[in-house]
Every structure is written in structure tokens, then in C-alpha cells.
Amino acid sequence: MSSVYKQIYKSLLYEKATVSVLFFLSCLGSFMYFFVQVSIDGNLTHLTYKKAMALTINSSEKEFLIALHSNQILATTFLIILSLIAAFAFYMFYKKYYRNHIKEIGCYKAFGYSNKQIIVVVFFITSSLSFIALIVGFVLGWIFSDVLLQLYRSSFDIELLHKGIFPSNIGIGFLFIVVLSGIMAIVPYYKFLKLEPSSLLRNFPEEHQNKWEVFINHKLSHVAPVKYRSSLRMILRKPFTVALIFLSVGFFTVLWIISISLNFSSQYIFETQTLGRSYKYDIQLDDYQPYHPLKGDSTFYLSSEVGISWKENVINQQAIGFHKKPNLFQLYTLDNKELFLPKDKEVYINEALSELYGIRQNDFIDILVNNKNYTVKVAAIVKNAEINTIYLSETQLARILSLNEPIYNGVLSNTIPKEYQNELIITEKERLALLQKNNVSNRISAVINQLLGCVTGCLLLYLVILLNFQECTRNILILNMLGYTAKSINKMLISIYKPLMNVAFVIMLPLSIIVCQFIQKKLSIETGDYIPFQTNLIIIGGIWLLLNLLYHLIQLRFNNKVANIQTTEQTKKYIM
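^ ABC transporter permease, sequence as received from the core. Prediction below:
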């Protein structure tokens, strides 16, 4: 069995570039998981201990605890998505590897080695590679988790923070990264289980297309331009290869779109939260006050925590009712039209409610206060609404709260009246500083996700295209020996991949956008932070250019490899 191990190990060493990509993908999944998880577990243990010992937990620590649970979802999401991408990559590689080394497998069987022994060797080598990647990712994640801890300090004003990891979470990482990669390495081997050594030594029998595959192949090849028809007909004989290209382009597009969207969404939130506001002070009172005239340019408002019932969901919101149309805070619709005060039995909702829960203009929703329902009509969706806030008229909100009107518990003003100097006052400077801090924090997270998406997407696409190019190596060398020029060979075997990849991009783009919208919607609901989806034609065009640039770089590397084989007289080794 040791001889089989040595032979398979040596054959994998010849695939250094591809194996390095697989190692990096596994390492990336491990790093991103432990990068987030290490910053969670130690602090979660500390705060849970304080609660168990009935020690006081201040408001910042309560918010921090909620954030830790939200980041737990983020860490699990990172692990699942990146592990599935790595598993997909391992499956692609080993499917090609077994096909290219079919004679070696036949020799192992001829010498008396069983399928079980071969599978054990492959599983052990692959799992060992992934285990090393797990350890490297864990160490790097532990080191760089200081970045997240620093973000926690700036966001929650908590100095004493801890690193840590639960053994169970290490086990989960081991299961997803090490065991899953080992399983995906042996799954493609199932085709060889019942084949005799003699069949393998004569090369794997080609799979015959059924009549429907032949029909589709014929129709699609005739749709293509004349210069691509023969090449397309050849590649369509391998539907799995075409499916891999479409899936890899889809992954690439999803990862790039969502990473850029996360970056742009933080800026969008900052802009909408500063739009239409010209007050310097938000004065929040502890008790309700009867209305009385104020000097200067000030606006009263009434606010209260309420629930919104919509399609079996109860959503907590803050309801605000203005006494009159505020001069210091102008509300805008999504198409930037000015809004006046809502009428009786009408409500203005924020954009997050519309996007996350599907509440549209002219829908009817129930406002829940003290176990009572009040049905109102959605008159408009406010672009620049306060986070988790809906707007009603002050008289209507007072009636819902069973208060004598007119009454208020908040004031927007450019001055601070003497009677309110001891109340809670949020200044314009403090509000902008908090928004800027959140914006910077979100941007750092977005940059991390952007780097993750870029690297993962590029590596995955690199792996798929390179594996398909490598499958053409033998045919390229044979055609070269027959006297065909490099230009003719490229036209017959390689050039088809570029238009096929661009067609895949066009087809997968709408699906990728839908997937990105779904992911951001679920993240917004789970974390409680609205992440609006942001993209445009310039972003899509940039991703398309990057896709083609990456293709040309991979093609250049492959051409150099083939040229090196020819100059070092290794052609015989590849075509035998």
C-alpha cells in the first residue's frame, strides 16, 4: 500500500499549481471561519459567565452580546459557503485527475490493490492537505482576529475583550474543511469501482451521447458563428465541462457582485441617514409633555415603540408622529419627491420594511400597541427614514397610544431651550460621528468580504479554465507533431472557451443578481442591520472585463506550459 501512496503522491506533485489553488481555497475557508469565531467565543464565554453569576451587564455589553450572536451567523455562513466552494473545486480536480491517470489506476488494480485501498490513500492525502490548511487558517485567524476586536472596541466602547475558541467549533471546522474535502476527492472514483484492470489499461471507455444530447449539440452548434461551430460541437460532447464553466462563472459573478454591493451599501446608508436633515439637536424627553409654543425654528414629535404585523411576522419599529410638517427634517420618497405629513389612517414606512418584508405602497398593515391592532394604509416608502422607524401624524399616534393630544416627547431644534438642558440631547456632531463610525466599520467588513470574494472567485475560475485547458494538452501536442500551426490549434481547441465563458456570464448574470439579493436580504433579517443591495451597469461591466482579463492570463500561462513541454522534449510522456 505504501507504493500506491508514493505513486499517487508523486503524481499529485506534478499538479503543483492546481493543488496549491486547492490548498489556498481550504486555507481561506478556515481563515475566514476562525477569524470571526475566535473573536466571538472568548467574549461570549466572558459575558455568559457574568450573566450566570448575576453580575451587572451594562447597555454596551448587551448590544455587544447581540452583535456576537449575529456574527456567529456570519462565521457559519463563511464556513458553509467557502467549504462548499472548496468541495466543488476538489471534486472538479479529482474528476479530471482520475481520467488523466486511468492507466495508473489500472496498474494498481492489476498488481492486486483493491478499490478500498486506493480510496483510503486518496482520502488520506487529501485530508492531510486540508488538515494543514485548517491549521494554517486557524493560526492566521487567531492572529488577525485582533482587527475585529479593535472594531468591537470602537463600536461598543468596551476595552476588556478576549480571544477564544470552543472545542466544538474546532470540530465543526474540521468536519467541513477536512472531512468534506476528503469525501469529495473519492466521490468521482465511483465510475472505476466495477471496471476491470484490462478495461482501465485500454483507457476509459468514452461516454456515448444519447439522441437528445446529439440533437441539442447539433442545434446549438448551428446557432453559433461559423468559425466556432466545429469547436463548439467538440466541447458540447462534454456537458459536464460546460456545466462546470457555467457554475464557476456564476460563482465568480455572485462573489464579486455581493462584495462590491456590501461596500456600496454602507455609503448608501450614510447618505440616506444625512439626507433632508438640517437640525442640530435631537432632544429626547423622559416624560410626555403637553404641547406649547416654542421660540425659534423647532419641531415637536411624539415617539413610541410599536410592533408591525405583516404576513405572520411581528416587526419591532419606532413610530414617530410630527405635530406639523417639520422644517428641519424633510422626508423623501424613493424617487426623491418631497413628502408632507401622512393623513389619518395612513403611515409612511422605511425602505428596509419594503425590501426585506415585501410591504408595498397601498398595502394595509397592522400596528400593535398594548395587545391592540390598528390597521393603516402604507401611503409612501421613505428613502431617508430613521433606521427601524415609521411615520404617522401626531394626532393619530397619540390616539393609538391612548394619550391626550396634542402631546410630545421629542424636539428637533437648532437651539437648546433652557427647560430641556438636562434632558437627553443628541447633537448633530454626535449623530454624524456615530454614522461615520458605523460607516467605517461596515466598510472595513465590506473590504474583507470584497477581498474574500475576489480571491475565491478568481481562484475558482482559474481552476476550472486551467483544468479544461489541461485536458486539451494531449490533443494540442499531437496536432503540433502533425504540423498544425499554433494559431490553427488555438482556433480548434482553445478559442471556443472565451465566447462560451462570455455566454455563461450573460446567462448567469440575472441569476447571480437574484442570489445576491437573497443573501443580503437574509443577512439583513438575521443581523437586524439593513444591507441594501447596490449594483449598476458600470460594476457589471467591470466584472465582465475582469473575467476576460483573467481568462487571457490563464491562457497565456497554459500556452507557456505547452511551449515548455515542447522545448524540453516531454511530448512523448503526454501523448502516450
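The first helix runs from residue 2 to 13.
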